User: Which sequence fits this backbone?
């Protein structure tokens, strides 16, 4: 790990006039830096991920990357390797925190559905995939993601989609939002759905 951490520092030093914000811009991140981060991720996962099984086979090791595949890859996640070769993780939880009423480039986009499809297609080795859902956004007024303010059944709709896509389940972020006014409405629909 110390060797790959040094690779990151060496890659940064190739660009002494750039700030960290510039170096880690997903659109312009230098390829040497991206490769160094991917090598570091693999080293960390090898050192701390699967060796956990030697201590206790029951312990699961998982990763919860950003929900946009290209962004997660741009900041060093080696998703193509992790989701095509066994031994990197026991499960993955992509954080797909958008509704299907997202405004992108001036038009409505089914962003949750698009991101879910990308993740499912990327999962070549059938790593158990649970989708991170944004309960914290329930009732939130957002000029780009209008669905959360308009509806109170988004979480259930997304659960149905992840089930239809063959995912292993879901993770709600965060449990504290189960009890606020908007979260309670989503949770009421959630309980109805699972009571069937």
Assistant:
């Amino acid at each position: 790990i110390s060797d790959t951490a040094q690779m990151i520092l060496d890659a940064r030093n190739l660009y002494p006039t750039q700030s960290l914000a510039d170096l880690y811009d997903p659109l312009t991140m230098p390829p040497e830096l991206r490769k160094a981060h991917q090598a570091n991720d693999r080293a960390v996962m090898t050192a701390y991920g699967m060796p956990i099984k030697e201590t206790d086979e029951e312990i699961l090791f998982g990763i919860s990357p950003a929900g946009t595949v290209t962004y997660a890859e741009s900041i060093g996640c080696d998703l193509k390797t992790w989701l095509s070769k066994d031994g990197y993780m026991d499960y993955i939880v992509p954080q797909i925190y958008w509704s299907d009423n997202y405004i992108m480039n001036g038009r409505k986009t089914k962003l949750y559905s698009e991101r879910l499809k990308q993740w499912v297609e990327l999962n070549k080795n059938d790593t158990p995939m649970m989708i991170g859902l944004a309960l914290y956004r329930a009732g939130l007024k957002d000029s780009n993601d209008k669905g959360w303010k308009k509806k109170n059944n988004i979480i259930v709709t997304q659960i149905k989609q992840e089930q239809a896509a063959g995912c292993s389940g879901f993770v709600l972020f965060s449990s504290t939002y189960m009890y606020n006014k908007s979260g309670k409405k989503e949770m009421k629909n959630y309980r109805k759905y699972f009571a069937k």
About this structure: Residues 106 and 144 are 9 Å apart (CA to CA). The radius of gyration is 19 Å. Strands lie at 62-63, 91-92, 102-104, 107-109, 130-133, 169-172.
